[in-house]
Amino acid sequence: MAAYSETIDLYSDDGKLLKSGVTLDKVSPLVNPATSKIIDLTKRTINVNLAGIENTLKAGKLGGGKIRGRELNLPIMENKEAIVARIKEMVQVEEGDDTEILEFNNGQLLLVQVPRKRLDNAATYDAAITAVSAATTYAIVEEFDVDMFNASTVKAACWGGYPHTMDTKGSNVTSILNIPQNNEGLGFALRNIPVNHFVMMTGRNSLQGAALAATLETAGEFEMGQAIGAFERNQLLCYAYQGLNANNMVYDLVKANGETGTVGTVVQSLVERAIEDKVIAPGKKGGYFQFYNTSDPMLWNAYVAAGSLAASVVNCGAGRFAQAVSSTLLYFNDLIEHETGLPSCDFGRMMGTAVGFSFFSHSIYGGGGPGIFNGNHVVTRHANGVAIPCVVAACALDAGTQMFSPEGSSKVMGETYGQIDVFNKPIDQIAKGVDLIA
């Protein structure tokens, strides 16, 4: 990748300076060790709901349905230690390798970190969830000496409807990532994560949630080939200014407009900041209209990406409703174009995304609230990593207006992944990661 001399200052979600004079390349998902850890754990860490397995077996609720006569009453939680030991023994490649099993809620939930060797020697990240699903099934069958006629029931509690369904519908073994077959194209895996997952993993902190989403969205953009050559700088600038609160821009914009501001006043604040920082300057006049020029369209794009996030926080935070995020993304960027004559966020793609997003999230179609969308969705995939962080921030501030709440769809993500520092405080950890770069 290119070497960058331009620097940014990294600030926390509460506006405190974390690291100054950071060259742009040091926040890259290819370079920063904290970002690499997020990506690594996203691929090889799997949730096991042990209490859920016991309850679904007891009720015969398998694969998303109920099969009468197939109930099994197994004291799984009473024998948790033995089952965990069996799972670890089968998942690990070598004694003492990087396999790790973390327990939460008194062992009701497990977070299994599959050894890197399993993924290094596999074609896809499937290797993580298949190994853990199979090991959990086998551990329970062995522990309780389940016979051949009932072993398939245990398998259904751990694998869900698979292979009758393409995915593991109804499974108690889950991953942050969706199955590869559901990725819409090359490199979409890290973008195929529901908004509500990010909200719960970061404890409903709007800027930390946006940072985590931006990190994996940006990593996805790199994987898609969107950050090659000159485009790399554009992607890194957007990630830094929007996702990592570079130069405290998002925080400053929200603080200046949070009490009485509107989407329109965030536009004003952003344009004033861009003029002050000499990113844009007055150009020609057309009648009453003042056009602006920029010699650095990529930096301007990053400023507008940060403004889009700030506008989402101000507007959706004021109403405590996530539903307005699509129209906020549309009209903030529409106003930016009318105010400056310059391109809006992602050079117009944010506006295009927002039009479809408004329709599919709550207009006459109304298929679902913003929290169930992701960067792989046919509606929200088109903005290059800059739309989903705004949606995450809006959903973090939502007071319960969504049909599909984060607590309803993604509670387990908060109870497991949300307890790991790189997931719940990504801004802080990425800033610390800068010091670890040689």
TrEMBL record:
It holds the Pfam family MCR_beta. It catalyses: coenzyme B + methyl-coenzyme M = methane + coenzyme M-coenzyme B heterodisulfide. Pathway: One-carbon metabolism; methyl-coenzyme M reduction; methane from methyl-coenzyme M: step 1/1. Gene3D superfamilies: 3.30.70.470, Methyl-coenzyme M reductase, alpha/beta subunit, C-terminal (1.20.840.10). Its EC number is 2.8.4.1. Its cofactor is coenzyme F430. The keyword Transferase applies. One of its GO terms (molecular function) is coenzyme-B sulfoethylthiotransferase activity. Keywords: Methanogenesis, Transferase. Residues 7-185 form the Methyl-coenzyme M reductase beta subunit N-terminal domain. Coiled coil: none annotated. GO terms for biological process: methanogenesis. Residues 187-433 form the Methyl-coenzyme M reductase beta subunit C-terminal domain. It comes from the Archaea. MCR is a hexamer of two alpha, two beta, and two gamma chains, forming a dimer of heterotrimers. Belongs to the methyl-coenzyme M reductase beta subunit family. This is Methyl-coenzyme M reductase subunit beta. It comes from Methanofollis formosanus. The gene is mcrB.
